[in-house]
Each structure stands twice: as structure tokens, then as C-alpha cells.
Automatic annotation (TrEMBL):
CDD domains: WHTH_GntR. This is GntR family transcriptional regulator. It comes from the Bacteria. Residues 10-78 form the HTH gntR-type domain. The lineage of its organism: Bacteria, Bacillati, Actinomycetota, Actinomycetes, Micrococcales. Gene3D superfamilies: Winged helix-like DNA-binding domain superfamily/Winged helix DNA-binding domain (1.10.10.10). InterPro entries: HTH_trans_reg/aminotransferase, Tscrpt_reg_HTH_GntR, WH-like_DNA-bd_sf, WH_DNA-bd_sf. Keywords: DNA-binding, Pyridoxal phosphate, Transcription, Transcription regulation.
Length: 118
């Protein structure tokens, strides 16, 4: 489910893009899942069709979805690959922290700081 926050400075297309991306990465939307049509999602969210179209296009460029014309827009298999890569990176990080005997809380702090500065 996508929710548009009208109180934030984040553009609606970006909110849609970020929420769909997060749902794909979290495994809530799996490869092959058909997304709502641009018109349908725009109507459901109360935004312009161009807003949804832009979010879908940016997700397509990033490899998260595939547009199949009249067949609709679907979650790409690449989304699963991105999740696998993220998991592998997290595992490498966790193993490194354990090898260095870094406490869990300290490891999370280090990761948060690195992520913020990346």
C-alpha cells in the first residue's frame, strides 16, 4: 500500500518511487508481480497520471520494474538480484564486525554513520 504524505517536502512521484522500491527490496512485491496501471494508481492516490508514470519510469530505469506495454508494469527479476546483493553485503559486514570483535550496537552505529556519509 502506498501513502502520499502531503505534509512532507518530498515530491509525490518520489514518495511513490521510494515506497515501491522499499516494497520490492523487502520482498513484499516479488518478481512478476503486476503493478496497478498508471491511471488506476493515480486515481487511488489522488495524484496526476504523470506523477505515477514518472515514478514507474524511474523504477524501470533502475531495474526494479519492467514495462510491458499493454501487459502492464511488473516487478523485474533484477529486484531479487538487488536484494541478494544487499544481503551478501550485509553478511560480509556482519562477519567483518564479528572477526574484529566489535559489539552489535557499535557495529550498527558504524554502519549508520557510513550509510549517512555514502
Amino acid at each position: 500500500m502506498i501513502v502520499i504524505d502531503t505534509e512532507t517536502s518530498t515530491a509525490p512521484f518520489e514518495q511513490i518511487r521510494l515506497q515501491l522500491r522499499q516494497q520490492i527490496l523487502a520482498g513484499e512485491l516479488i518478481a512478476g508481480t503486476r503493478l496497478p496501471t498508471v491511471r488506476r494508481l493515480a486515481a487511488d492516490l489522488g495524484v496526476a497520471t504523470n506523477t505515477v508514470a514518472r515514478a514507474y519510469k524511474e523504477l524501470e530505469v533502475a531495474g526494479f520494474v519492467v514495462a510491458r506495454g499493454r501487459a502492464g508494469t511488473m516487478v523485474a527479476a533484477n529486484g531479487d538480484a538487488v536484494r541478494r546483493q544487499a544481503h551478501a553485503a550485509a553478511l560480509t559486514f556482519a562477519l567483518s564486525m564479528k572477526t574484529l570483535d566489535i559489539a552489535w550496537d557499535d557495529a550498527i552505529s558504524l554502519a549508520a554513520a557510513a550509510y549517512a556519509n555514502a
